[in-house]
Design a protein that fits this description.
The complex is a heterodimer of chains A (112) and B (113).
Chain A: E1 3-5, E2 10-14, E3 19-21, E4 24-26, E5 33-38, E6 44-50, E7 56-58, E8 64-68, E9 73-78, E10 87-94, E11 100-102, E12 106-111
Parallel strand pairs in A: 2-12
Antiparallel strand pairs in A: 1-4, 3-9, 5-6, 5-10, 7-8, 8-9, 10-11, 10-12
Chain B: E1 5-7, E2 10-13, E3 19-24, E4 31-37, E5 43-50, E6 53-56, E7 65-68, E8 75-79, E9 88-95, E10 103-104, E11 108-112
Parallel strand pairs in B: 2-11
Antiparallel strand pairs in B: 1-3, 3-8, 4-5, 4-9, 5-6, 7-8, 9-10, 9-11
Classes of the chains: A mainly beta (112), B mainly beta (113).
Chain lengths: 112, 113
């Protein structure tokens, strides 16, 4: 079955430092992977996706993610974190029936 | 372009009552999805419409939940009668098709007392 896992419930980084939010996947066939972000009292906002092509995917707000087939990972990264990046981040994979299978979410806190 | 909208943003009802949630997808998106996130847990798929037809409703928890999408535009999700375990945030999403991005609405927070 298609699934993703986010091993960290919480990630804390200092403003200006690089950040990584981890995601691993388990799929049959080609993976279609996504990252979404949820700011307080807001809905899920699409950040980026990997369908095919370059392993490094660039998305909104300076975020990028690296697809690693050998490690079955799709970690979200940003070179320099902002306090405004503090939010809940969800990794997701497209399921067989076109539904999205989400991870449990990782709360990112960026401290000034 | 307007995004996915959901109404109401919050709903507080008592056990046994009925609640209807509404979702307006992005104009032109034939695919509409409902998801639910129960407190602190994963976001779970409920069902998928293609236009007015239910493509997949395997995630619907039980027959107290009824979703409709008359005319292939907006969709409603009715919970009748509501139970305590139905509390959570209900998200709606829409897309043009597979494997296109699903765009999510702000969600409806349902609290059943």
């Amino acid at each position: 079955a298609q699934s993703v896992a986010q091993p960290e419930d919480q990630v804390n980084v200092a403003e200006g430092n690089p950040l990584t939010v981890k995601c691993t996947y388990s799929v049959s066939g080609n993976p279609y992977l996504f990252w979404y972000v949820q700011y307080p009292n807001r809905g899920l906002q699409f950040l980026l996706k990997y369908i095919t092509g370059d392993n490094l995917v660039k998305g909104s707000y300076g975020f990028e993610a690296e697809f690693n087939k050998s490690q079955t990972s799709f970690h979200l990264k940003k070179p320099s974190a902002l306090v405004s990046d503090s939010a809940l981040y969800f990794c997701a994979v497209r399921g067989y029936n076109n539904d999205m299978r989400f991870g449990a979410g990782t709360r990112l806190t960026v401290k000034p | 372009e307007a995004g996915v909208t959901q109404f109401p943003s919050h709903s507080v009802i008592e056990k046994g009552q009925t609640v209807t949630l509404r979702c307006d997808p992005i104009s032109g998106h034939d695919n509409l999805y409902w998801y639910r996130r129960v407190m602190g847990k994963e976001i779970k798929f409920l069902l998928h419409f293609v236009k007015e037809s239910k493509q997949d409703e395997s995630g619907m928890p039980n027959n107290r939940f009824l979703a409709e999408r008359t005319g292939g535009t907006y969709s409603t999700l009715k919970v009748q009668p509501a139970e305590l375990e139905d509390s959570g945030v209900y998200f709606c999403a829409s897309s043009t098709g597979f494997p296109d991005t699903q765009y999510f609405g702000p969600g409806t927070r349902l609290t059943v007392l």
